UniProtKB/TrEMBL annotation:
The keyword Metal-binding does not apply. This is Toll-like receptor 22. Residues 43-69 form the TIR domain. GO terms for biological process: signal transduction. The chain crosses the membrane at residues 15-32.
Length: 69
């Protein structure tokens, strides 16, 4: 019986791994967001920056300080 339960658990784990991992990261995002909200910081905008690694220096030195300032 233990072998059957172990095998069944492995099959379920394999097919539910994506769900487990995505729920884990969702939980981490929730913790991060709640921690950030407790700090009292308010933001007017939220930005996502997509850039090439060749432009990384410009983004870090020029763009981000202007966005945060």
């Amino acid at each position: 019986i233990l072998v059957i339960l172990n095998h069944a658990g492995g099959v379920i784990w394999k097919f539910q791994l994506y769900q487990v991992v995505s729920n884990y990261y969702l939980f981490l995002a929730f913790l991060y967001d709640s921690k950030r909200n407790q700090s009292g910081q308010t933001f007017q905008y939220d930005a996502f920056i997509s850039y090439n690694t060749l432009d990384e220096a410009w983004v870090m030195e020029e763009l981000i300080p202007k966005l945060e300032g």
